[in-house]
Amino acid sequence: xxxxxxxxxxxxxxxxxxxxxxxxxxxxxxxxxxxxxxxxxxxxxxxxxxxxxxxxxxxxxxxxxxxxxxxxxxxxxxxxxxxxxxxxxxxxxxxxxxxxxxxxxxxxxxxxxxxxxxxxxxxxxxxxxxxxxxxxxxxxxxxxxxxxxxxxxxxxxxxxxxxxxxxxxxxxxxxxxxxxxxxxxxxxxxxxxxxxxxxxxxxxxxxxxxxxxxxxxxxxxxxxxxxxxxxxxxxxxxxxxxxxxxxxxxxxxxxxxxxxxxxxxxxxxxxxxxxxxxxxxxxxxxxxxxxxxxxxxxxxxxxxxxxxxxxxxxxxxxxxxxxxxxxxxxxxxxxxxxxxxxxxxxxxxxxx
Amino acid sequence: xxxxxxxxxxxxxxxxxxxxxxxxxxxxxxxxxxxxxxxxxxxxxxxxxxxxxxxxxxxxxxxxxxxxxxxxxxxxxxxxxxxxxxxxxxxxxxxxxxxxxxxxxxxxxxxxxxxxxxxxxxxxxxxxxxxxxxxxxxxxxxxxxxxxxxxxxxxxxxxxxxxxxxxxxxxxxxxxxxxxxxxxxxxxxxxxxxxxxxxxxxxxxxxxxxxxxxxxxxxxxxxxxxxxxxxxxxxxxxxxxxxxxxxxxxxxxxxxxxxxxxxxxxxxxxxxxxxxxxxxxxxxxxxxxxxxxxxxxxxxxxxxxxxxxxxxxxxxxxxxxxxxxxxxxxxxxxxxxxxxxxxxxxxxxxxxxxxxxxxxxxxxxxxxxxx
Lengths: 352, 371
Prior knowledge:
The structure holds two protein chains of two kinds.
Chain A: H1 7-13, E1 19-34, E2 37-54, E3 59-63, H2 70-77, E4 85-90, E5 93-94, H3 100-106, E6 107-110, H4 114-117, H5 124-134, H6 141-154, H7 173-185, E7 191-195, H8 203-220, E8 223-228, H9 231-237, E9 240-245, E10 248-254, H10 255-260, H11 265-273, E11 321-324, E12 327-329
Parallel strand pairs in A: 3-8, 3-9, 6-7, 7-8
Antiparallel strand pairs in A: 1-2, 1-4, 4-5, 9-10, 10-12, 11-12
Helix pairs in contact in A: 5-6, 5-7, 7-8
Chain B: E1 11-22, E2 29-40, E3 44-48, H1 55-62, E4 70-79, E5 90-91, H2 97-103, E6 108-111, H3 115-118, H4 125-136, H5 142-155, H6 172-183, E7 190-194, H7 202-219, E8 222-227, H8 230-236, E9 239-244, E10 247-253, H9 254-259, H10 264-270, E11 330-331
Parallel strand pairs in B: 3-8, 3-9, 6-7, 7-8
Antiparallel strand pairs in B: 1-2, 1-4, 4-5, 9-10, 10-11
C-alpha cells in the first residue's frame, strides 16, 4: 500500500489488504415508460461509500437483509457491476476499467444458486476444464483431466471418476455448490467472493460447505468474502463482520466483538431477531422495514426505526466511530463524549 | 391457553399411519411413510425436515390437498370438530368433496410459503378477504363483511388504508400478514403454515412469528408449522416432529428436543446451527446428503449418514417408540430400544442443562412466551 488513503487502514490492521473497496458507491437509475416515452424515475442508492478490506487467509462476512446492498457490493468487487464512484484496490493497485480477464484470474465469485449457475446441458468435467483453459491453468487432455481431478479432490468430491461425467441435475444441491466452488478455484484466485453460498442448501449440509470454504482459505491463503443474511453463520465462520443497512455500512469489526458487543442499534436489532434457542428472555423488537432506496432517509438511514434516535441522526450521516480494537460503528451515540460501549446510553439488548 | 405440555388440550387432529405415494405400482415414490401426529387444541406443532423429507406432503395429505400423482395409500386423519363431543371425530380421508368444502377454511386453513403466488394479483386485498367471507358466510351482510375484513387486517397489524391495495403494492411481510388474516377469516381451529416466513428477512420473520403466537394465545387455534429451520421451531413450537426421508424420526417437546435429542439426526441438526453466544466451536453438520426417495437405503434411511450406525440399522427399519425413561416422546432409532448402550449425547437427562447447549432454556410451559 503506497497511497495516502491507506494510512487509516494500515493503522487499523497492520497488514495490507489483498482487495479493498474505497468509498465504493452504486446508484441504479430507474426509468419508467409512459406511453412509449422514457421518463427518468430517480436513482436507487444501492450502495453508498462502502469501505471494505479483504485480507489473505481471512474471511470477511458482509451481513445484511435483502435490499441492504450486500450483493451489489459483491458484484462490484467481482466487476460484474461497474461502480458509480469510488474504487477497487487489488494488491495495492487501483483497478481500472480494462483487464477484466486479468482481474478474474485473481478474483472469483461463487453465486448463490448452484441450480442456476451451472449449465444444465454440460457435465462437471466441462464446467471445470473450461475454467482451467480460460485461466491458462492446464492444456491438453491429460493435463486437464489431472487438473479436474485435483479440483474435485479440493472440494471433497471423491473419487473424481464418479463425478466428472455427471450432469448438474444428477448432483445434490451441496455437490452442485462444491462444483461451483471448484470452478472458482480453477483460476487459483487470491480472492474468493461467495454470495450467499449456502442459503439454497439443506440445513444439514450448510456447515459442511462452510467448513470446506474455511479449509480452502487456510490451505490456499485466499481472502474470502462471505455475503450472508445469517449473522449466526457469520459469527461462526468469519474473522471480521461488516453489517450493512440500506446501502451503508453501519458496523464493522472482529466477528465476536460485533456479535457479542453490538454497537449499532441496527446490529442489535438484527441479533435480537435471529432465531436463537438459547435466548434467555423474550426479545421485543422495533417494527418497521428497510426504507426506500430511491428516497433514503436523510442522515443515518436507520434513524426512522431507531429507538435511540437523536435530532442529529436525521440531519447528518454518522461517520465511523471507533468502539474497540478494529471495531467501528456508524452511530452518533458512539461519538466520543456521547457514550462508550461500557457506559452506553443503549441498554444492552443482549447478554454478553 | 391449553398449550402447556403438562396439561395438553383436547386432541383436535389425530394422524395415524398416514402413507402418501407419488405415482402407482412398483415405481411409486413413498413420500410419507406411516406418519403419526397428534395436534392438541391451542398447540403449535413444528414439523422440521430438509427438502424432500415429506413435511409438506404430510401436511397436504392430511388436509386432502394433494394433487395427482400424489395419493394417500393408508392411514387415518381424525378431526375432532366439537370439543364438547370428543368421541365423535370425523376421518378426513372418508369425506367427499362437499363435506371437505364445508370443513376447509372454516375449520382448517393454510398459509402458504409464497404469498405472491397465493394471493390474486389483479384484485385488491379487500376484495379477496370479502370474497372468502361471501363464499363461506353467505348470511353476512355486505357491511358486515366489509367490517370483518377491516377487523381482520387490524388483527394482523395492517392499517385500514391498505384495504384497497393490490398484492404487488405490499411488502413481502405485509403480504404474508394478509395471508394470515385470510387464513383466520373464518376462525378455524387449525392453521397450517407451510414455511410462511422462509422468503422473509429475519426482522420481518420475527415480527410475524410474534404476531402468530399473540393471535394463537388470543384465539386459541392450533398451528402446524412447517419449516426447515429447526432453530426457529425451538423458540416457536410447543412440540417438534422431525422428519427424515418420509418418516417422523423423533417427536418431543421443543425444550426436550433442544437439551436432550434422542435421534442422531436431531442431534446432527442441532449441531448444524451456529450459536450466537459463547466461544466458537467447530461444527460438523451431517456428512453426506439427504437420500433419494426413489432409492432409499435399506433399514433406517439415515444409517449411511449416521455416526452411530450398527449392523442392524442397515437391515431393519426402526419404529417410532418411546425411548427408555422418556414416556412423553417418540423416537425411531435402534439405539433407543432399551437394550443398546446409548452414547452420552443421545441419553442426556431431560429438561436440564446439558452439554454445550445453554442452561437458560425456558421450561416447556414457558415456550409460548419465549418468542
